[in-house]
Amino acid sequence: MINNYSNTAQLKDLMTAPPMTAAQHAEIMRKRNEQRRKIEDAREQQRAERDPYGDHA
């Protein structure tokens, strides 16, 4: 489970920081999606190696 409370920034710092630009947001989302795809690919690869004959469900 991901811990969403690990950021130690103070509330004042968060509330007074300028909002991110659309380009910054897009870059963050691209990196997040890329990381998620890598994790999903690794899981699929691991499942394929565990069951070489495919799904029998």
Question: Could you describe the 3D structure shown?
Answer:
With 57 residues, the protein is mainly alpha-helical. The chain has two helices and no strands. The model has no long low-confidence stretch (mean pLDDT 84).
Question: Summed up, what is this model?
Answer:
Helix content is 61%, strand content 0%. The chain is an all-alpha fold and 57 residues long. It is elongated and about 55 Å long.
Key phrases:
mainly alpha; 57 residues; single chain
Multimeric state of these chains?
single chain
Mean of residue pLDDT values: 84
The assigned structural class equals mainly alpha
Q: How much of the residues is beta strand, in percent?
A: under 5%
The total of helices stands at 2
What about the largest sheet? Answer: none
Q: What series of H and E elements makes up the topology?
A: HH
Q: What Rg do the Cα atoms give?
A: 19 Å
* Cα distance spanning the termini: 28 Å
Low-confidence stretches: none
The total of beta strands comes to: 0
Overall shape: elongated
Share of helical residues: 55-70%
Layout of SSEs?
Elements: H1 11-16, H2 22-50
